[in-house]
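Title: Prediction job returns without error message
Component: structure pipeline
Severity: low
Priority: P3
Assignee: unassigned

Description:
Job completed but the reporter wants confirmation the result is attached to the right record. Sequence as submitted:
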Amino acid sequence: MEPEQKTNGALIGSIIIVVILILGGLYLWRVNIKSALETNLGDANSPENLETELENIDLESIDAEI
């Protein structure tokens, strides 16, 4: 009878899958942050955007809180 040989194939495969999942998660997180920053900061200083933000400020509710 041949002695049983232990293989580490399942362990190595599991480690590779975990590393791929971590890298994919980091990639998606980075893309999500980048798109959020572009949405929030994209052309924020243009006169049109500043004027729109100024028009959307509800001063009456601020006065009511004071």
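Comment from assignee: result matches the submitted record. Residues 12-65 form one domain.
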